Amino acid sequence: MTKSIAEKQNKGITPQQFIEGMTKNQEAFLGWSDKFVWNEDRAFFESLQKRDDLRVHILMADWCGDVVRNIPVVFKALEAGNVPVEVLIMEEHLDTMDQYLTMGGRSVPVVIFADPQGNVLGQWGPRPTYIQEPMVAFKQANPDREAADYQANLAETRQEIMRRYGEGTEYQTLIIKELRSLIESF
Prior knowledge:
The longest helix is centred in the middle third of the chain and has 16 residues, at 65-80. Helix 2 crosses helix 4 and helix 6 runs antiparallel to helix 7. A four-stranded mixed beta sheet has the order 2-1-3-4, with helices on one face. With 186 residues, the protein is of the alpha+beta class. The protein contains eight helices and four strands. The mean pLDDT is 96. 28% of the residues are buried. The protein has helices spanning 15-21, 26-35, 42-47, 65-80, 94-97, 129-141, 150-165, 170-184, and strands spanning 55-60, 85-89, 110-114, 120-124. Helix 4 links the parallel strand 1 and strand 2 (85-89).
């Protein structure tokens, strides 16, 4: 059965409303947005202006570091293509969040691509694949949340994720490439 996001159409807020309403991390969010630089994929995203068959819903929250790092890039890409975007605040849309779990957990952001009728075409998130790899490995190696070394291993995994993000904006190219590849598939 095909997933649908139709019941959430016109229930979200605009990207600008999300940014203006941020009570946490707004400065960092805007900082990553300001640092964004297009690569050779800009023309592809601008070409999306010719399509009217894409809608995007993004599950997210302002407290999340991955949202702060990744969504400014997603916003820039979709803005270049004039793709309609609605933000769904995770805590206000837990019913939807629970349909888009990552390895069984509520991880944001989740970028959901749909057609105008709300049929889900694909999704991206919460991080670029390369940056997500340590978390995938951690979850596979640490299934018992009550294990004595679980929290220490999780802390180590989070450090590796931050190392992979790096200090600069190189990770942003990964997001653009993954979004392009996903959109090209539908």
